[in-house]
Amino acid sequence: MPATPKRLSHLPRLLALLGTVVTATLSQAAPPAERLAERIKPADLDAQSVLILHYHRPDGDYDRWNAWVWTDSGEGKSYAFEQETDFGRVAIIPVDHHPDRYGFIVRRGNWVLKDIDRDRFVSPDKTNTKRRVTEVWVNSGDPEVYVDGQAIDLSPKLIAAFLDSPKQLALASTTPLKSRDLIEAVLQTEAGDIALGSIQRSKTPSPGSVAYTVRLKSEVDAASLNAPLTLAIPDYDPMTVYARAVLDDPSLAPLDVELGPVTNAEQTTFTTWSPVASSVDLLIYEDGIDSKPSQTLALERKSDHGVWQATVAGDLHNVPYQFRFTSYGQQRTVADIHCKAALPGSDFSVAVDLDRTNPEGWDTHQPPRLAQPTDEVIYEIHVRDFSMTDPNTPEHHKGKYLGLITPGVTEPGEESVTTGIAHLKELGVTAVHLLPIHDFGNDRHNYNWGYWTSLFNVPESDYSTTPDDPANTIRELKTAIKVLQDSDIRVILDVVYNHTSSSFEYSPFDQTIPNYFFRTNPDGSLRNDAGVGNSVADERLMVRKYIVDSLKYWVTEYKIDGVRFDLLGTHHPETVQNISDELYALRPDLTIYGEPWTGGGPIYFGKGAQRGMGVAVFNDHLRNAVRGDLDGTATGFATGPNGDTHAIRNGVAGAIDDFSDSPTESINYVSAHDNRTLWDKIEYTHPNASEEEKRAMHKLSLGIVLTSQGIPFLHGGVDMARTKGGHHNSYNQGDEVNAFGWDRKEQYRDVHEYVAGLIELRREHPALRLTTRAQVRNNLKFLKNTPEGVVAYTLNGQNVGDDWDKILIIYNGQPTAESVKLPPAAWRVVVDAHTAGTETLAEARGNQELPPYSMMVLHQ
């Protein structure tokens, strides 16, 4: 285990020491920034180094504020600002090593708010190497980290000002403004000064500031927002006013304009949108990015909408470029957020002639079609995980797009298992769900799941065999998609439009149009709805257009078969409806689904919001009912006695009595890339269970998913009892934890064959794939008077065109054998505790005993 920041084990000693320090400081009437470092010795805190972090809040409210601190060799921990000084509050952070630097975030509670929405870093005090004590000061709302507290200006200041409509400002200050401050205040515009009217204090919390809504006495001309706007209040420094929600004025939203580069052998046309820019320059790097730009050209502002465009003659295929935006008195050089290709690192866009990225046969290639949504059987995989340990994959294809399409069939006599495409075909799934492949600027030496998008229209170069050749990266991804689809395996992309990998000056989105693409508080601080630092503001017209245009691009250019939305709950219903309308107009058989929750922020699109949209959501009610909790030891129907049979029945019926209009809106699952794998969960919950018991629980869990009404979703490798060694959040744990354990396929051959048999059963029988509420109501009937912990039901196959007149499905969720009285007449068994499929295993009538944690499928 790496060394990590730690709390002092002897807390009373720390408090006593701090009490002495604070008392001495106050009794000496010390200035607010008196140093405490000389009074603290690391050895007294059982530490090798100590960070002292002073924190000042102008409002004096320190309730629940704390410092989240980490070092270069460990994970973060929370440290309270426990002691009071004249400056404010102080946190003492002892660590058991000598770090190269400390990182910290000041936050409220458990990430409710952040004071400064970015990581800040402190280098150890090099002048104090013997004592190893570093002391710094921070002031709320100020990103600067001070080594001298007396250098901090604590006088009242304006923090931020935003234009949210032609007649409304949002204003934030460090201390409350007085009415006399505003009497002579004006908004200075190119057309003249505008006086301020009414002012109202905002009720929305803003860390380190007091926020106001200000009405202007006349409107700002929306067409002149690329000219300076300055708020002038006597006795305060002038404040630049940023155009924010005002940019949603329809006159500024070119919803019908195609943005981004279009390249062919003769020319490239570059088009972007920035209504706040006074100029936009195109920097072209034909000689490579280590040289100066070979061409610098000014884009032309095409209209008052803020659209900028330039056409450059010549063949720029695979040539890097950037945009330089001039806005609010600054020049900002960044990648093109609408680009289709980029260099590793995501700082340089690349122009590509997309026709030259097509593999052979692409123009006439047609993806496999889906007759109805419930025909889909989804298998979730990560590009790298799938092939890194595949013995049939060539070494240079492992972990790459091309590793997805290893045939996977071994030569006779070779000691290996079926892998790759052959494995997918053998299993019988209809689609692979790929964890994010949008460019996420990953360091090639670091593993990552990819939920950290940098550029949404660019495929991640780390999965290419030629990461420095963007055109070939696109070609390899298209090749992988084509080969999968030619094998009747559809391709669904996991998309992350709810947040991006960077903010502020590090974000090409924020530099293209500052303060527009992300949700912000009244004072301009980032909202953290997604739980990862920023949240994309899809409620804004041009942000919504960006998302929809991007999705349409992936459907048309890459011919993908569906999308899965990360944290769909952060998106507004209007956005989801727009996505549904636009994508289904392109392809009615797409599979669209997402997570109806957020990363801690308000839920805009929860379970039930999808009704009638053609969008499905993950059914976590069924998941929890089957397995129990995600990472703890709570049991569910298939993993412990006396499970919630009511929740199982709701899930079996496609959630039509829960949150869905039809079973097509329910994604049924028990495990995914997040949290413990199903096998790890069972092992953690039942460490003393026998191998037979664990396999029984595993099979029953998957059996419920694959025989319930709705769309089944399987975590890749679950058919081999996939393990991650108990890790519940393996997003950066590397290949050792995350790679497919192909050697487990033979070890758990019975599990694999059981799952494959259930998929075969599902795909051959339409009674298991009903599509409407009425079909479920009319044809699915639960048996009464079953033993406790047993769920049984029949499906009327005759009414829905099934070859079997009636199907009977029974789940025993008890750790004991249970006897169930079958409906009259003889039944043919096709699934029992050990075998699944469509072939008759036995005939049964009367009472039928089910072993512990098992299921049966019978038919007439």
UniProtKB/TrEMBL annotation:
It catalyses: Hydrolysis of (1->6)-alpha-D-glucosidic linkages in pullulan, amylopectin and glycogen, and in the alpha- and beta-limit dextrins of amylopectin and glycogen. It comes from the Bacteria. It holds the Pfam family Alpha-amylase. Residues 380-762 form the Glycosyl hydrolase family 13 catalytic domain. Residues 1-29 form the signal peptide. Keywords: Glycosidase, Hydrolase, Signal. GO terms for biological process: carbohydrate metabolic process. Its EC number is 3.2.1.41. One of its GO terms (molecular function) is pullulanase activity. It is an enzyme of class 3 (hydrolase). InterPro entries: Carb-bd-like_fold, CBM41_pullulanase, GH, GH13_cat_dom, Glyco_hydro_13_N, Glyco_hydro_b, Ig-like_fold, Ig_E-set. Belongs to the glycosyl hydrolase 13 family. This is pullulanase.
